[in-house]
Design brief:
Radius of gyration: 17 Å
Helix content: under 10%
Strand content: 35-45%
Strand order of the largest sheet: 1-2-3-4
Structural class: mainly beta
Number of helices: 1
Length: about 190
């Protein structure tokens, strides 16, 4: 039943994403591929992408300033819990955290070779990350959980041959993972905790 609800909500949300009049093109100032954007309010937001790029705006996206991630990995997903505290997940198990609005970023203690494609915090202290080890001989999918502000992470191996592309949790026990079959290009949803 929850899968049906998730799929139904996805179709409702997908209608919102259809281009409409009133959209304005804004220049990010970079040629790098950008993978995720999040605004914490109407003026302040971040955009992340390949090669460790982090961009920040404080004027609703009209201008963007580069922030130094300190890494060259592709950055895939982010979650800010306040104006000052944010987390970014990327390739090669990278999770970085800021507590000063992006002026500096520090790697958390997660040790993983998985390409992390999704990050979701349900409150200031509890967060989840998901991704896949794309080794053709031993593919594995994992979801990671932190209950101490991203300082340490525990892993749960997910038994599926599909690549985890997104995780979303609504509590410390209830969440969903979106999986992408590598050969088919389709997606399936499942409940994991």
């Amino acid at each position: 039943m929850k899968i049906g609800i998730l799929i139904f909500l996805f179709f409702i949300d997908s209608k919102v994403c259809i281009p409409q009049s009133g959209w304005t093109n804004l220049n990010s100032g970079t040629d790098s591929s950008l993978n995720s954007v999040q605004f914490i309010n109407s003026l302040t937001g971040w955009c992340i992408g390949n090669g460790g790029i982090i961009l920040n705006t404080t004027n609703g996206g009209f201008t963007w300033e580069k922030q130094n991630s300190g890494f060259n990995f592709n950055l895939n997903s982010m979650c800010f819990t306040s104006l000052t505290t944010g987390y970014i997940a990327g390739d090669s198990g990278l999770i970085i955290k800021t507590t000063n609005g992006g002026k500096s970023w520090n790697r958390t203690s997660l040790i993983s070779y998985h390409n992390l494609t999704s990050l979701n915090f349900i409150n200031d202290s509890t967060g989840f990350a998901g991704g896949s080890n794309l080794d053709n001989y031993n593919p594995t999918n994992k979801i990671y959980k932190s209950i101490d502000f991203g300082n340490s992470w525990d892993s749960i191996e997910v038994q599926t041959e599909f690549t985890i592309t997104r995780v979303h949790f609504v509590s410390s026990q209830i969440g969903w993972a979106v999986r992408l079959p590598p050969a088919l290009g389709g997606a399936a949803a499942s409940k994991d905790h």
